[in-house]
Write a structure and sequence with these properties.
Blueprint (H helix, E strand, L loop, with lengths): L5 H20 L6 H7 L3 H7 L5 H22 L5 H11 L2 H10 L10 H5 L6 H18 L2 H20 L7 H13 L4 E8 L6 E8 L2 E8 L2 H17 L13 H9 L2
Helix pairs in contact: 2-8, 4-5, 4-8, 4-9, 5-9, 6-8, 8-9, 10-11
């Protein structure tokens, strides 16, 4: 049996790992080097050599956005442009894509530098989300948009359906935070604006705002309940469920968007 060098053994091991991933995603590459590049973090490329995946991330981001937009346009013809945009923003956000990458254990296939490897880089949401985008781009470059669509739809269809429903079965505060971070780069602030009742039966009123622009208001028997109600009010307004915010307390939609864009 011929002696295999350490480098050859590593290459064979990597090849097997990539085949395993291709089985998992149900797509087999004509050019497997594209998949390997999609999984190569810049920290690895800087230390070992090779081409990192940042350009593929850029392309994959655009492809995912287009395919999700296409899905929304086709499956939700009665939704307004604003509502579809909001759903899309939540679905293509970093937290969502990182979860999807986790579902297929993408982190275990990444090539990372020593620093990232020792600091839990395989579990870092930003790295996982970027790798997911890069894999989508690799599939596209290896084949076509038609071949890429089934993978994206399979991975994100459930998330689209979930986010498109009122209530979504998820915590409104979490969804609002994901949306705010993805769309504007800020985390919503919650403020108690009034309390009523005796100490043992206090009733709280809370507003939620982003950079001093109020999004919603809610009341509850605890601060936590009031914050949840405020987040729900804001989320329903964003998706158009409640029509408009209370005119005496909140900015209208155009002023809201204009103010945020100036910050």
């Amino acid at each position: 049996m011929p002696h295999l060098s350490s480098r050859s053994m590593k290459a064979k091991s990597r090849e097997k790992r990539l085949i395993h991933l291709q089985r998992k995603i149900n797509y087999f590459f004509k050019n497997p080097s594209l998949l390997n590049r999609a999984l190569t973090h810049k920290s690895f490329a800087n230390e070992v050599g090779g081409t990192e995946n940042e350009k593929l991330e850029f392309l994959g981001d655009a492809i995912i956005g287009m395919l999700v937009s296409e899905y929304l346009y086709t499956h939700f013809p009665r939704y307004s442009e604003g509502r579809m945009s909001t759903i899309k923003s939540a679905v293509v956000s970093r937290p969502t894509l990182a979860r999807k990458a986790g579902d297929i254990e993408l982190g275990s296939y990444l090539l990372l530098g020593k620093g990232e490897e020792t600091s839990d880089g395989r579990k870092r949401p930003s790295i996982l989300a970027n790798a997911f985008e890069a894999v989508v781009a690799a599939i596209y470059l290896d084949s076509s948009l038609e071949q890429c669509r089934p993978f994206v739809v399979k991975q994100l269809e459930g998330e689209i359906q979930k986010v498109s429903r009122k209530g979504f079965g998820r915590d409104h505060k979490g969804m609002l935070q994901e949306y705010a971070q993805s769309e504007y780069g800020f985390i919503p602030d919650y403020h108690v604006i009034s309390t009523e009742g005796p100490e043992h039966e206090k009733f709280f009123e809370v507003t939620v705002s982003l950079k001093r622009v109020v999004w919603g208001r809610g009341k509850g028997a605890s601060k936590k309940e009031a914050e949840k109600a405020a987040a729900k009010n804001a989320w329903e307004y964003i998706l158009g469920f409640s029509g408009k915010l209370h005119e005496d307390n909140f900015a209208n939609s155009k002023k809201f968007k204009k103010t945020l864009s100036q910050r």
